[in-house]
Amino acid sequence: MKTTLLHIKNMVCPRCIDAVRHLLEQAGYRPTQVTLGQAQLDHTTPADPAVLAPILHEAGFEVLMGRADQLTEQIKGALGEYLEHLRTARMPLTTSAFLTERFAATYSHLSKVFSRTANLTIEKYLIRLKIERVKEMLSYGEMTLSEIADQMRYSSGQHLSNQFRQVTGRSVSEFRRDLMPKRMSLDQLA
């Protein structure tokens, strides 16, 4: 059975999967599987990515045509999973070990492709991703800064605080005082 595999940028959560599935079905396509960054169509509805691009673009998604763009989006998705790995693993892997294992490619290769297509290093993207997760945890008000730092594998609350200020331009205290803290959607990180 022949299928068409689309690579789609800006899919960052389960709601994005539902939205893409819905958009494809509305356009008359039959997706057999939709995951973060990908949609597979069955053989009865082969699709031209150039035709689907405007449909998905209206909802904030982008069809990726090149292999480097596709790999970069896959790396971004894997880094989101890596944050969960950091939080839950007793002895978490390093970023490079996690990605190397995930993609069966050298970290050097992954890093070069990512930097070239995202205009940002993997390390800087991961820091931004971590800070967005920290913002989320801070906005709930359920954990202390030290608890958040521990969960996110920072060496200390001070290290987290310093990195938070570098990335956001504000202190953690200033962020907490803000009634409507500004958070970024994950697809805007790079």
Automatic annotation (TrEMBL):
Superkingdom of the source species: Bacteria
Keyword GTP-binding (UniProt): no
Transcription regulation as UniProt keyword: yes
Keywords: DNA-binding, Transcription, Transcription regulation
Domain HTH araC/xylS-type: from-to ranges: 73-178
Protein name: Helix-turn-helix domain-containing protein
Lineage: Bacteria, Pseudomonadati, Bacteroidota, Cytophagia, Cytophagales
